[in-house]
């Protein structure tokens, strides 16, 4: 017993001395005072980006936060974001991998969690040249539009059912279905849901894997940041291994299905899995890399789309003026004798600005994913030591009163007054990141979010449930890497076009 106390005391003394050494050696950003061993872990509120923004108000736009013995730096302004993502992009392009992300990615054998280097450059090149070309996106447009129309048809059936007259719908359930079916068809060439909305066995397994992965990834435990305490969490290690094995089994089964189809000449060669199989030999991609890239596309493209559209619809319902203005534009450009499609976007600037304004206020990944310093750099006159974790608080950047007029107001017109790029060139608006780690599927994400909003607004009028005022919608967020509305959005949908325009014609 005495030996253990001596050992723990020695470790605490060592960690305290190490932190003091870093503080004396480096000019670290200010921040809340850390506790021995745990740092600031127990001071961090569940919705981390809000907590960090509050600390930014108290300590400044760049702060130090201690995750156990691991130093993290959080920046919250566009100027500092530019330093991180452009001026020092190369030194800060590595990824900090927690224990769960390291297990899920097999230590970076994918795109999202790979460190910057020859491997990352290679797999990003595969994504850029084989998956996300303009030609590929256009070839898969019918699938995206088909799934959005499936959502519209489902909403129409439910809101016109006499038993549901005047009742509200759970908007998230429809958005989740289209996001699931769209991403599985684009990536895997499969639709796990039949015409009646019933998910098959493989689809249930797929959804279970995605849900379980999100749950495991959202955790924040001491063992991740104080390595010598990992023994306290043996069950987590077992859970990670089980999840990875389950995920690999499903991915390998789907890959084998596609290999057989390609062998017999029946593969479409448009879906991502087919494109990757055709590129596997050319780029010397291992099976682990193939599986990692497939899950990258799925996890990055599914939740983020549904999240973005739900937040946008909540803001639109809260602001009837915006809904009316968007519908006037859609009626003028598209009319009432057909439905909107992606080729209309160029003539629908206000609709595009609605999507942009929603992602300014509610970026789907508010803290982006953690960067890691590969060498010592200076940001905002402060030292960022090698191996330091670096976060860009995109949520705070999008609400910075120094660069945004009335930052908390949902006002799409601001982008008519000044065009602000959201594809990584303007550091005031970063829903998809910027620099070397910008999301390669940015254009796909923009197209799908805009398409879903266009159909929802063109084909329905949306109101709050009876007895609820628009300003009573709960706009609080859930904890996690991807931020859902804490209370799923409920709304009443009323069709506004001829009934024959709600029929899906399956592709």
TrEMBL record:
Keywords: Heme, Iron, Membrane, Metal-binding, Monooxygenase, Oxidoreductase, Transmembrane, Transmembrane helix. InterPro entries: Cyt_P450, Cyt_P450_CS, Cyt_P450_E_grp-I, Cyt_P450_sf. Heme binds at residue 439. Pfam families: p450. It comes from the Eukaryota. It is found in: Membrane. It is a single-pass membrane protein. This is Uncharacterized protein.
């Amino acid at each position: 017993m005495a030996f253990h106390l001596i050992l723990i005391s020695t470790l605490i003394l060592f960690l305290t001395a190490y932190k003091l050494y870093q503080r004396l050696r480096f000019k670290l950003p200010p921040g809340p005072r850390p506790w021995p061993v745990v740092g600031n872990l127990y001071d961090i509120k569940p919705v981390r980006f809000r907590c960090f923004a509050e600390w930014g108000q108290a300590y400044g736009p760049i702060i130090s936060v201690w995750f156990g013995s691991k130093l993290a730096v959080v920046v919250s302004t566009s100027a500092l974001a530019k330093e991180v993502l452009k001026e020092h992009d190369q030194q800060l392009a590595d990824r900090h991998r927690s224990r769960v992300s390291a297990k899920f990615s097999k230590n970076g054998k994918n795109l999202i969690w790979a460190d910057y280097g020859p491997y990352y450059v290679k797999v990003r090149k595969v994504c850029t040249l084989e998956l996300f070309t303009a030609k590929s996106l256009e070839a898969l447009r019918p699938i995206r539009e088909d799934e959005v129309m499936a959502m519209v048809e489902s909403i129409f059936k439910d809101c016109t059912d006499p038993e549901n007259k005047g009742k509200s719908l759970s908007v998230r359930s429809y958005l989740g279905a289209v996001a699931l079916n769209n991403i599985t068809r684009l990536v895997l060439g499969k639709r796990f849901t039949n015409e009646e909305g019933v998910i098959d066995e493989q689809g249930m397994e797929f959804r279970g894997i995605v849900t379980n992965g999100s749950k495991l990834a959202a955790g924040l435990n001491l063992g991740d940041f104080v390595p010598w305490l990992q023994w306290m969490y043996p069950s987590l290690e077992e859970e990670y291994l089980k999840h990875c094995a389950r995920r690999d089994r499903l991915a390998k089964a789907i890959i084998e299905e596609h290999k057989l189809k390609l062998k017999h000449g029946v593969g479409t060669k448009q879906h991502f899995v087919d494109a990757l199989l055709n590129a596997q030999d050319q780029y010397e991609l291992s099976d682990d890399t193939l599986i990692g890239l497939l899950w990258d596309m799925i996890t990055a493209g599914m939740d983020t789309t549904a999240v973005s559209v739900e937040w946008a619809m909540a803001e639109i319902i809260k602001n009837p003026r915006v809904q009316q203005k968007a519908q006037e534009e859609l009626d003028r450009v598209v009319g009432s004798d057909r439905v909107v499609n992606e080729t209309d976007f160029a003539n629908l600037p206000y609709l595009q600005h609605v999507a942009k304004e929603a992602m300014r206020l509610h970026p789907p990944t508010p803290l982006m994913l953690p960067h890691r310093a590969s060498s010592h750099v200076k940001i905002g006159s402060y030292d960022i030591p090698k191996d330091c974790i670096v976060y860009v608080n995109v949520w705070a950047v999008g609400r910075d009163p120094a660069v945004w007029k009335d930052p908390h107001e949902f006002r799409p017109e601001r982008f008519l007054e000044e065009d602000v790029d959201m594809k990584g060139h303007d550091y005031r608006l970063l829903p998809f990141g910027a620099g070397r780690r910008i999301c390669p599927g940015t254009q796909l994400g923009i197209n799908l979010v805009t398409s879903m909003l266009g159909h929802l607004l063109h084909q329905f009028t949306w109101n709050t449930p009876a007895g609820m005022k628009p300003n009573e919608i709960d706009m609080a967020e859930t904890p996690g890497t991807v931020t859902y509305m804490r209370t799923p959005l409920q709304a009443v949908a009323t069709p506004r076009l001829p009934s024959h325009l709600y029929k899906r014609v399956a592709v």
